[in-house]
Amino acid sequence: MQFTPQDSVTEKRISLIEEVPTDEILTKVTGREEVSLHPHTHNRHQIIYILSGTLHVEVEESSYFVTGRHLIWIPRGVEHRLSSNNSQISLLTSYFCMEHAGEDCFAIYKTDELVARNLQFISRHELIDWNRTPEIFAFAMGFFGVLPHICKKASFPAQPFIIPKDVRLLPVLDYVKSNLNQDLTIERVASYFGFSVRNLTRLFTNSGIRFVHYLNYQRIVRGIEILTDEAMNIEQTAYEVGFNSPNSFSRVFKQITGESPSEYIRNL
Prior knowledge:
Blueprint: H1 5-18, E1 24-30, E2 45-52, E3 55-59, E4 62-66, E5 70-74, E6 80-83, E7 90-96, E8 107-110, H2 113-123, E9 127-129, H3 134-150, E10 160-162, H4 170-178, H5 186-193, H6 197-206, H7 211-229, H8 234-240, H9 246-257, H10 261-266
Antiparallel strand pairs: 1-7, 1-9, 2-5, 2-7, 3-4, 3-6, 4-10, 5-8
Helix pairs in contact: 5-6, 8-9
């Protein structure tokens, strides 16, 4: 496999993380430098709090879409990849060692104002050293340890999408995501790729995916990204992501997220 400059950037970042002593916590407020890295692992637990923007997180065979004010828990040794389609993104990220972590599996949590303020307080200290600031170190480690107990696991927009193993379906899914503003039907997509409707439907079914559900899910995900960037209003966003009316967009948006687009905007 060819070694690319992007691989070099990733390896340098991982090396810096893994060189941090076990009695120190590395925290930072970051933006795009923390995303679009190739899949990687490190020997530290990682917590990511999304201040603004949205993230796509790939873990093992699942892909998650995570919006602002959610917390992502990535245990050490778990391979992951982060990406974002937003023009601006801001993250609070912490790396630390913990022998008996409160959560041993990848998880996404809802947060409240108290959790957010504590994470922001911890992030003011780029390197928390037990020897120099034992009180802050003890507070941060204690807080990280109880996070899985005081936060609720998120549903949407953190629902996992299982990445299909059938390689024939991957270009089809990419095509749908790249053409959301088109009048997509399974008949047209099948014709584009040279499948019969029956065979393409079988590919989706065997991968546990319904075409219409996948299409609507990706349209709402893209709609959330646009609304988060404040690039368009609700009506413009509806047409941009392929709905034939703002009402249809709002109806599907609420079916998938549990809230209307206007409610989502108010909560940004």
